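User: I'm putting together notes for a lab meeting next week and I want to include a structural view of one of the chains we've been expressing. I don't have a solved structure, so I'd like a prediction I can at least talk through. The sequence is below, exactly as it appears in our construct file.
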Amino acid sequence: MQIKLTAEVDHRRAARLDKQLDALGGEIKDRMKQARKLGGYVRTQSRRNIRRQETVEGAPFAPRKRQRADRAMLSGLAKTVEVVSRPDLGGVAVTWKNALTAKIAYRHQQGVGEDWTPEKAAKVYGRPDYKAACTRSQATALLRVGYRLMVPMKGGGRRPMRVTVGWLESRLSLGQAGIILRLMRTKKSQGAQSWRDTVPERPFLGVTPGEAEKMCEKLAKTVLGKVPR
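Assistant: Thanks for the context. Below is the predicted structure for the 229-residue chain, given as structure tokens.
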């Protein structure tokens, strides 16, 4: 899957740029060389946007529904974005090295939702080891929703006692922690059997009209410098 890159450039400048490219003799290798340069610039800009956590227009990325500890969004996509030659289209494609990352990138770029079931999630991400130890994030979530350990009192009865993240990690399994969290959050023992995962738009791939103008100016100078006088 590829994301189509669009950049607004005025028609007069685009026409002039085409004439300058034609001046090179119409050689496909020359056009592809310039296209790869432009694609590389877009790739660099997109990586910069992810690093800064900004959209193409410079606005901050829409935040996650649930905050995670200082983990930058889409950081994995920056490492796999690449420029692929597409002579059949007369240019290049800025895309990703595999279909999964391309799909994730498209969803964030366009803000596209996706339908899920437990079976689909297991197929994509694998089934967790429910007998493994409770994770730190689970333990933190349990304390956040008010989990307390009920302990006996001397005179009879029981009272709630606060526990630590370390205690939960050492005493609960991943499966046990998950069930307790679900019961405390939803009052249901079974999770949803289908759901739609939606993400807000985070358009990081592309360039602004001003950046597109600069790209064309730079390319025009390069082309003019190669035209025989």
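A couple of points you could mention at the meeting. The longest helix spans residues 28-52. The first strand starts at residue 81 and ends at 86.

User: Perfect, that's what I needed.
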